[in-house]
Design a protein that fits this description.
Elements: E1 3-6, E2 12-15, E3 22-26, E4 33-36, H1 39-49, E5 55-62, H2 72-90, H3 118-157, E6 165-173
Antiparallel strand pairs: 1-2, 3-4, 3-5, 5-6
């Protein structure tokens, strides 16, 4: 989900759930404050606001959207939970519903035995790989759909994250010089 894209006037944009990279500052490397368009703005602000500190920190800040926090494991858990609810309500008839792509003799042969030829084992592996790809493709399609719904809901309801993640913090002395580490 990370793709570096060129922005206007050569600015560096790092796509992480819909926001460009900004900068934040701190006097303790734990709690970062403010969001600034440039590294220099964040450093200038830190030097003026943390005059009593021995060092200040400037880091890249990424505010991700709700879709960033949704992954394949969430989708698999949701499907498993729905299948369990159906089985509780309808019994054995709902067993294995939503659990895996349908496996038939047509697309999955019998498991090879020690008597199976190398060619048959290779054919089996090809079919297993195709089945796994089908499963992964189906889940990825579902994940994309859920992300669209979640992004729309979170934006409309005001539930997009109001926090951000910081990375690559750099330490500066109070003269604005990069501190040795």
């Amino acid at each position: 989900m990370e793709n570096i894209k060129g922005g206007k006037n050569g600015e560096r944009l790092l796509w992480r759930g819909g926001t460009k990279m900004e900068y934040s500052n701190s006097d303790n490397e734990e709690m970062f404050h403010g969001r600034f368009a440039t590294h220099e703005e964040a450093l200038t602000d830190a030097l003026s606001n943390y005059a009593d500190a021995d060092f200040v920190y400037v880091a890249e800040a990424y505010q991700r959207t709700i879709g960033h926090y949704l992954n394949i494991h969430h989708i698999e858990s949701l499907l498993e939970s729905m299948a369990e609810s159906a089985e509780e309500e309808c019994g054995e008839m709902a067993e294995d519903w939503l659990m895996e792509p349908v496996c038939t003799e047509k697309n999955i042969p019998d498991r090879p035995t020690f008597r199976t030829s190398a060619e048959e084992r290779a054919e089996y592996q090809v079919r297993i790989d195709a089945w796994r790809k089908e499963k992964a493709d189906r889940l990825a399609f579902l994940l994309d759909g859920f992300r669209i719904v979640l992004e729309t809901w979170a934006t409309d309801a005001g539930e997009q994250p109001r926090f951000w993640q910081v990375e690559n913090a750099k330490c500066y002395d109070m003269n604005g010089q990069l501190a040795p580490q």
